[in-house]
């Protein structure tokens, strides 16, 4: 797996802006995925120390199938690509929003969605891989019961090939500061096999 990231930040008054470029490449079995993405985000300071952030990205995802090692039940199947290493590339979009209120338990809420174009990858005459929307909903806060800093969090992930928030995967956890140099945490997760 290869992952490279470049970031440039800028601040103007109460607004911070950032631009990023990332390159990601991964291989699982006979499928190689390469993703090239550009991001733009800004954070605006609001009244009473509250803040909001918004980001957008555009990227190109390429999927390549290495067919050399595959064994076909029917080698004459017209859906088998003629190319030795067929590939497809899709342009994709994503966006997200984030809100923080440090005066109310340092509450942070966020929502992001990726793969907004949901365009399937074509290999020969088959729409083989159709990435659906990937949605993320998160919340976190900070509490100090008895002087102990506790940070609970919730992350809900969902993917879909249609409308709605489908196939949810829930992550619930908390971190506690036991001292300035030691933290302890607990995390619970349900795993959705369809995600």
Helix content: under 10%
Count of structural domains = 2
Tell me the number of strands. Answer: 12
Largest sheet: spatial strand order: 1-2-3-4-5-6-9-10-11-12
Q: Judging by the overall fold, what is the CATH architecture of the largest domain?
A: Alpha-Beta Complex
Describe the structure.
The protein is an all-beta fold. The protein folds into two domains: 1-131, Aspartate Aminotransferase, domain 1, CATH 3.90.1150; 133-195, S-adenosyl-L-methionine-dependent methyltransferases, CATH 2.20.130. It has strands at residues 2-12, 15-28, 31-45, 51-65, 87-101, 107-114, 121-123, 126-129, 133-140, 149-160, 169-177, 183-189. A ten-stranded antiparallel sheet has the order 1-2-3-4-5-6-9-10-11-12, with no helix packed on it.
What keywords describe this structure?
two-stranded antiparallel sheet; 2 domains; S-adenosyl-L-methionine-dependent methyltransferases; 195 residues; mainly beta; Aspartate Aminotransferase, domain 1; elongated; ten-stranded antiparallel sheet
Describe this structure in a few short sentences:
This protein has 195 residues and is mostly beta strands. It has no helices and 12 strands. The chain has a 10-stranded antiparallel beta sheet with strand order 1-2-3-4-5-6-9-10-11-12, with no helix packed on it.
């Amino acid at each position: 797996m290869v992952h490279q990231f470049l970031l440039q930040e800028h601040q103007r008054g109460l607004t911070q802006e950032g631009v990023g470029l990332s390159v990601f490449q991964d291989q699982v079995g006979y499928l190689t995925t390469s993703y090239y993405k550009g991001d733009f985000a800004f954070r605006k300071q609001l009244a009473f120390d509250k803040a909001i952030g918004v980001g957008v990205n555009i990227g190109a995802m390429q999927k390549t199938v290495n067919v050399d090692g595959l064994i076909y039940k029917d080698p004459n199947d017209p859906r088998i690509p003629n190319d030795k290493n067929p590939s497809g590339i899709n342009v994709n979009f994503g966006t997200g929003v984030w809100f923080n209120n440090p005066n109310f338990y340092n509450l942070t809420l966020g929502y992001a969605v990726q793969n907004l174009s949901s365009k399937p990858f074509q290999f020969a005459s088959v729409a083989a891989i159709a990435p659906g929307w990937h949605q993320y909903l998160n919340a976190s806060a900070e509490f100090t019961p008895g002087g102990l800093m506790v940070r609970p969090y919730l992350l809900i992930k969902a993917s879909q090939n249609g409308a709605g928030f489908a196939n949810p995967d829930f992550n619930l956890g908390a971190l506690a500061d036991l001292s300035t140099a030691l933290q302890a945490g607990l995390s619970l997760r349900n795993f959705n096999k369809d995600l």
